[in-house]
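Researcher: Final request for today, and then I'll write up notes for the group meeting. The sequence and the SMILES for zinc ion follow.
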Amino acid sequence: MAYDNNLFMEHLRKMIQIPTVSNADPDKMDVDAFLKLHAYLEEAYPLVHQKMTREVIGRAGLLYTWKGNGKSSHLPLMMTAHLDVVPEGDWSMWKYPPFSGEVAEGFIWGRGATDSKCNIQAYMDALELLIAEGFEPEYDLYFGFGYNEEIMGGPEPAAQLIADTLRERNVKLGCLIDECGGIQKTADGDQYGTIYICEKGYADFEFSKTDNGGHSAVPDKHSALGRVCEAACILEANPMKPVLTEAAVKQMEATAPFIKDEHLAELCRDVRKNWDELCSLMAENPAYNAMIRTTTAVTMAGGSAQANVMPERAWIVANNRLLPGQTLDDLWAHYKEILPEDIDIRLVKGSNPPAVQSTDTYAYKLISSIVEDKYPGLTLIPSMLCGGTDSRYYCDLCPTNSVYRFTGLSWDPRWDGVSHKVNERIPCDVLENNVDFYVRLFRQYGK
Ligand SMILES: [Zn+2]
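Model: Predicted protein-zinc ion complex:
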């Protein structure tokens, strides 16, 4: 199949130019921007819109359905990504304006370029090309695009609404693929694939203390704010214990050949045997530490509104990421145990980690074989995502345990970890490869 990378670039640029920014306050969501993006998709991908049924779910979610010809015995394939982007941040720090979709220095610049409009663009372009060739799926194909992934769903998680719609229709999925992952090229020239088979849970806990307040000229020995600050120190000094999960073992052992530190690489070759030593080494590195435990990060605090008033109520908030297998109740019990009784604990919001997915499935093997075909000899590393994605809402619709976060993108040091930062950008030359991955997937799935 012939690919026109300029066309892919044009599609992505136009999508970036529509500022579909998330807002934690649903009343402030710019629904019109989302509707504009819907209209643009319709204009850019006429064949997809001819073949697939499109429904608007919630205020701006999109569910596309294509009932296949039924020849395949496999359950449906679903692709997900999100229409919303995080706020652009400080405009003056952007090299090119955040909603310009500027093409410069070999990149397309702008908010959403990598997270995750490039996925929507790639799914759509792949399918549009296939339809032009006469493709008809033997399986049912779904696309689901939410509008509030970046605020963890907020009060009306779009992905949940889409999943509920499918559930009402008794749809079961054979495989769901969401954003994140792909091929990684390191600065040392190593190359491997990352496929996320699980992700951590999420929770915000508030810890507060109320007392009498009063004049700060005659203070008590402790203010409510002093007490919650002590609580913050206790939280930091008493993290949840490290746990060796099956997913972490798989990930560490597969990563061993790529670890430059000789000693660490040696330990990772047999994770279970070397667990004690690994554990203390990993705890020192934030990225490794997050792989082996539920994390607690104290991120917000508040006390009195004025310097000369003792706070009547003071609070801190900790953001937590839960390891698969642990629950909000476990975390609550841990906090109850380590904190003094007079500190009030409140779960502001949170969700338990979704189920860990299997690597012994039809879909996993298919993805592996496409990767092997494109990059012979490449290692695919089943990994845990420390952040969260919309895919978690769909796990219980997928009896085959085949919910993966994987893309056809080749990530390399040029990207500079740009997601959610200013100067988000995507190298122009990776789009074609991304589309090619989905062309192969849509063609081969169900066979
Ligand atoms: Zn994202």
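Model: The CA atoms of residues 8 and 352 lie 37 Å apart. The longest strand covers residues 201-210.
Researcher: Thanks, that's everything.
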